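Researcher: Let's continue the batch. This sequence belongs to LysR family transcriptional regulator, and it's 302 residues. Same format as the previous ones, please.
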Amino acid sequence: MSEWDIKKLHILRTLSERGTVTATAQVLRMTPSAVSQQLSNLAKQLGVPLLEAHGRRVRLTDAAHLVLRHAEAVFAQLERADAELAAYAQGEAGEVRIGAFSTAVPALVVPAVRALREAAPGISVRVRETEAAEAYELLAAGEVDVALSLAVQAPASPDADTRFTRESLVADPLDVALPAGHPLAAVEGLRLADLAGEPWIFGGSGPWSEITRAACEGAGFSPEQAHSASGWTAILAMVEAGMGVALVPRMAAVRRDGVVMRDLAEDRPRRHVIAAVRRGAAGGVGVSRVLGALRGVVVGRG
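Model: Same format as before. Here are the structure tokens for LysR family transcriptional regulator:
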């Protein structure tokens, strides 16, 4: 029987995610030579080649991908074991680390922490604000236990990514921000398609860019990106100056003099706020309590 080494399998999985030995070494705080040596030893233990040369880099062999498919089940089972052991040892106690994008922190995470102080005072929560696009990287690396990210649509079931269990917490409506003097600012029954010819302001990449583009394309047009920004202060300042229009999440509750927020009632676009945990970890007392508190906040928001 082949010898399966969990530590080495974790290195192999990280290489699959990061793409290069150097990036893998940086994430795992190892030297590139140590990464290569560990993977070479794993290949000997399993009796199959795991890496092959690809130009100046290496890539995973078919055998390596087969190994990883089975390893994901092992990692999930270990997460469940850790969760059960923590529940046994700590009961209603322990620390849960949450990674969340900026607007989710005040709208969802802070109210959830307040609720947990009353319902489960033994569980402490450590919050890390992060870009939505980085949430899964932090979760996979074990740096957070619950990750809040964004998506155009709710996650499909069964989940395509076997590393995580994901759920849509809330479908957050998007309003359009217009300069106060814009000809469409007071038009009745404003539709997203009415803004097809406008210059748009949104981020250059990541989930928010995808959400804006998907919303506009769903309304029948491709938005002309006049300016790129990710912070709401910058975006709304440009809208106020008449430099373009933008979609703004209702959850952000951002308001600025000189900017009119319009509800797109007919074809209202939405962004999905996704909560993700490592597969197998949802049964842990702390993680399940945090997820429950987040769901409670969403229900309370109505």
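Researcher: Any comment?
Model: The chain is about 40% helix and 25% strand.
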